[in-house]
Amino acid sequence: MIEPQAAPAAEPATGQALVEAENLKVHFPITSGLFQRTVGAVRAVDDITFDIRKGETLGLVGESGCGKSTTGRALIRLRELTDGVVRFDGVDLTTLKRDQLRKMRRRMQIIFQDPYSSLNPRMTVGSIISEPIETHNLASGRGKLERVKELLALVGLNPNYTNRYPHEFSGGQRQRIGVARSLAVEPEFIVCDEPISALDVSIQAQVLNLLVELREQFGLTYLFIAHDLSVVRHISDRIGVMYLGKVVELGPPAAIYETPAHPYTRALLSAVPIPDPRAERRRKRVILTGDVPSPANPPSGCRFHTRCWLYERLGRPENCRTDDPELRIVQPDHRAACHYAEDAMQSDVGVAHIGAEPIKRKAFGAGPGAHKPVADDSVPATLVTGVAPDEGTGGGTGGSGTGGAAPPE
Amino acid sequence: MAVQSTTIDRKLAERPPASLWRDAFERLLRNRLAILGAVIVLLLILLAVFGPFITPYEYSQTDTQLVREARGPANPGEAGHLFGTDILGRDLLSRIMDGARISMTVALVVQVTVLLIGVPIGALAGWFGGRIDNLLMRFTDITYAFPDLLFIILLTVVFKDTWFGGAMDGLLLVFVAIGIVSWVGVARLVRGQMLSLKETEYVEAARAIGVPDRKIVTRHLLPNAIGPIIVAVTLGIPGAILAEALLAFIGIGANPPRASWGTLITDGQTWMSSEPHLLLFPAIAIALALLSFTFLGDGLRDALDPKLKGKQ
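ok -> structure tokens follow
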């Protein structure tokens, strides 16, 4: 299934930030009545601060409605910020005038989730891809056509398709057209808003590989939004976990997957089934109870405390209800927004299976991949919290994975 | 990644490109009722344009022979009048042909007025939203709530003696008046289209690229909204023709001796028992025109937006 050719960029970019978000807030007003009086706000993104380094791929995961997409759009100013600052290469985007912003748009682009609604059905592929070229006066006449063909070839499509219409293509091909459109302006930064979630599983890997190749070729910086933990792990240099409009944990994949410091991250990981029966038996599940609270009226203090297993385990400490935890450093380059991150790290929730003897998998080939724990095995580990399909099997704390159960073959 | 050349790809490369318009046209051609409607509409348009050159008589010309004989109107087929004559000895066929001219002009002028008012108002409201949307839509509601007939009569009274009131035998005023009371539907339609289209990801992509607003509206929004607009306009034509006929029926509209189909029906009903053809032929003409436009409009809707098929 998903088996990207390239691992995360060899040298994780350090230091220089390309995109910086500072106290980013995006609230959507709730209006009611005849005069559209504002009666409240949906706090889609509520005071988050992070940066994306040059050449890095930052993965952003979280449940639906947690504000990932809004964050991505706010970073390239497709959504107006309610408050806060977004800097791109040191330039404050929020204060830019219309024309200056338009020039900046050359440097940042977006790839959308739905390849069906992201292409104008009345325009040919040629005019879709040449629109950015025309808008920024990058080429004209013959040169423009050449450039369009070059871009089509670059994303693996037949360059002679310029006079075709989007509905003549499959989902994967359309997504490639979308990628070509965003590459047309030679951007440095691309927000990939769940670029493969809407695609067929067999096509996902192809598009993912394309994105990875383009990253290597052009030194692109990605914000990769997804709800699939395994995909994000594969291609990210760092991963941010969002919950209800906040970034709750931020760090390199190894830290996030092996020593997660936020109870929410641990709960998520514990819900991922492991395609290794021995490890699967050791998996400790935490089933989150209740629904995600409304972002229009988030809980006080730590937003996760209403559903937090650690909060219960620690005897409901008061500061979880009263103080909003900061995103603080818990390990080098690893931040978490939890008052009790250290306690969370000491538990084995979500990581209990790590270290289990890997079963020799003849059928799949026992490559080096077999040592990678957790969601490495490309089971589309959708971030579902709450009810799990395998309830009852995962709760066991069995460290005795020596039973005669052989892998199903 | 290398260029993929699967069989599907090759098939695609061989086929001529199919725009949505071409697809829609092919779907339309397959709809027999719509084609019948289109043919009749086309005939009516030809009649309206070339009618004066092929009519056997002037619409206002009295057959003096008949009058001298002091007998009533000629029956259909009598004395060289295919549809007979009215009580003043005027050829009914010629008068219906002239009526077709009026009805087709109604269709054109009313719908142009509707588009000129409805599309900008709907587009502005939908695109800008917020306060502007509120203002324009409340104005639209008020227009909708105002009694149409009263408004048209007021307008005709106010402008009666001006140039505008006299243009086209007094018809232009009536047409524009009808247009002014019927743009509401189109404005709401365009607004709705704008609201839904501006949230689409391709519009967002255009914004991310930095395409100026004006171009987003003209390149992305309007071309995608145009299908429903065409349908609404086509389906609005029967209403306009009917409205004109209704106004003519109560005596507002063409100055005599010009007569629209509505006027002919008014005249005809007076003699309904003795001379049924005076009522029958104009009534058939009007019914035929209404049906044709409705069939064509339905066919266009099915062709342009297959998803809507069977609804409304």
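Residues 40-311 of chain B form a domain with the MetI-like fold fold (CATH 1.10.3720.10).
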